[in-house]
TrEMBL record, chain A:
Family that this chain belongs to: Belongs to the RNase PH family.
Domain Exoribonuclease phosphorolytic: 37-169, 195-260
Gene: Rrp45
Protein name: Exosome complex component RRP45
Main location: cytoplasm
Keyword Ribonucleoprotein: no
Source species of the chain: Drosophila suzukii (Spotted-wing drosophila fruit fly)
UniProtKB/TrEMBL annotation, chain B:
Organism: Drosophila suzukii
Official protein name in the record: Exosome complex component RRP46
Molecular function via GO: RNA binding
Biological process, per Gene Ontology: nuclear mRNA surveillance; poly(A)-dependent snoRNA 3'-end processing; rRNA catabolic process; rRNA processing; U4 snRNA 3'-end processing
Compartment annotation: Nucleus
Gene field: Rrp46
Keywords, comma-separated and alphabetical: Exosome, Nucleus, rRNA processing
Chief subcellular location: nucleus
Annotated GO CC locations: cytoplasmic exosome (RNase complex); nuclear exosome (RNase complex); nucleolus
Pfam entry (one): RNase_PH
The family this protein is said to belong to: Belongs to the RNase PH family.
Domain Exoribonuclease phosphorolytic: residue ranges: 14-133
Amino acid sequence: MFMNSNLFEPGKSKPERNFVQLAVKQNQRFDGRRSNECRDVELTFGADWGTVAVSLGETKVLTHVTCDLGAPTTSRPNEGKLQLNVNLGGVAFLDEVQSTHDQRSLTLNSLLERTFRSSRCVDLESLCVAAEQHVWCIRVDINVLNHDGNLYDASTIATLAALMHFRRPDVTFADDELRIYTEKEREFIPLLFLHYPVSVTYCIFKSSGQPIVDPLLLEENAADSVIVLSFNSYQELCTLNAGGTAPTNVRTIMQCARNAATRAKSLVDFIRKALSLDEERRLQGGRLVQGLVALIGENQQKLSFRKLMGHQKQEPQDLQSEKMDVDTKAIAKPRVEEMAVEEESSKQETDAPLDSSSWLPQDEDSQKLPTPSEASASKAGKGKQNRSKSKANKKQQAKKQNNSDSEEEAKPVI
Amino acid sequence: MNLPGKMDVGKDKLRQMNCEFNPLSRCDGSVMYSQGATVVIAAVLGPIEVKTQNLSIDGSYLECNYRPKAGLPQVKERIREAAIRDVLELALLAEAHPRSKMSVQVQELEDRGSIDACAVNSACLAMLVGGLPLKYSFAAVHCIINEQGEYVLDPDQSETLHQRASFTFAFDSVEGNLLLVQTKGAFKIAQFNDIECLCRAASAEIFQFYRNQVAKYHGRSEAIAEKEEDASMET
């Protein structure tokens, strides 16, 4: 009688899948966007510190930050705690099908953990009141209200905005006595950040080489693989999550990474601008601070990415053109390299047959490759001609991670 | 926080109500409802498949969840959830869909006083817009007795700090029967009766708000709805 298992997941059935694949092949998307175009982001700040509602098209997320004094862990006695809590059930009805719900909450949770905790974006040492005794525990509750694709970006934007919006009360510790000041006594203190990470999601389809950014739920479910990249405002890579079944070219990933870095930067700029606007409104006080009532209907209080970045002396055009530049560069570069590679291969053609499809299996059989690293490269399906380049790219990525101030992130790469 | 309190609204008036229908795309009906600065979002899904343990052959199973803004639901939220479920169970026409489940989820967005009443009202609106069968619609009203012994209808959170007693009543729209009574604090029975009358009068205002909003949503203008209301009152 009922078919719950497929009711909530568009894009899981075969006809839908084929349809999406076909559309992507023709460079078409359901809402008329181009493959590198994102949906509008809207931020609404609540009346309390640290309450933010984010909407990314139809995807809606509510994030609330609370703080609490507690004891630190024994391994890090002088650091505060940051706890992230994702809530997928409730009004989003994502818990109707248990198997997909579990998987989704796990991936989302691990992504957020890596983006915000492992990358050490919040200065946790500043949250210490008395070493080994009292530290601030910051708890972030991420309530998913509606899921229409790209939950990752919506929740990272919401989490970052909420953390940046949040203020904690001032506290003093003297003579073994904690004293927490109210807002009237002493002004609340914002959190300290080391960097500001935001994620950007790409979907890759087997039918087309062009990755699409900011997917809808239909596209996300039908996609062969989903790549999530978190960049901070200094354009350093914080998290890379690539899964799925589509074999992805290094070039494509690099192209995604370049675009994601610019997008992340502009997103952080947008959040900063929205926060300063919110602060202005709070200073003026009175009726201007509406809180989340502003979510209802069309409203000035909703801070939209397009509008806000548009007000700034035609920055969107610059930004767009900049983005386009990057795009064309990203597309153009590989082409040049391809040409070079082709030339190279044509030179080499005299001494070795280089049609990768024909030599790859042979290669594995005869075990010509001495080093394991090269073998793994060939297993990954890369031809001899671009192996060196892929290595270079990998090195670049590794370097990028080294540059970031996260030790934990960098270690596994080395 | 210098929020606009209830300064601009009289003590015997409800705060301004506001709502948006179907802000969410995954459910059958959803509503974002606000009373003053209190905002909740409610969503319904049904009739859908039910687990065998909850299956009932002579009526649908009602699932009702209330989620706070932060953290897991505690005792306070469970009580609120039970209140919503009790009212909904009375109003729901369960016989219409046996062997199925109706799921109602209420998410708190911002709590600035009378969240109990808001949650119940939003659940009713979500049921209406989701097209789930109800015997009647219902409305809840919150009222307190403050320090000076005055009655404050639909108080803001700042006004509830020094309250003597608080009341939440829910009424049905057809016969005006009491569906829910929640009281806290000390009061005289005469005060209880007074406040019941006050809340009953206020519930009429909420039902009118329901009618206007639903009419607006389904494409009839507010003016027509009001005119018809006047006409029916005259006859």
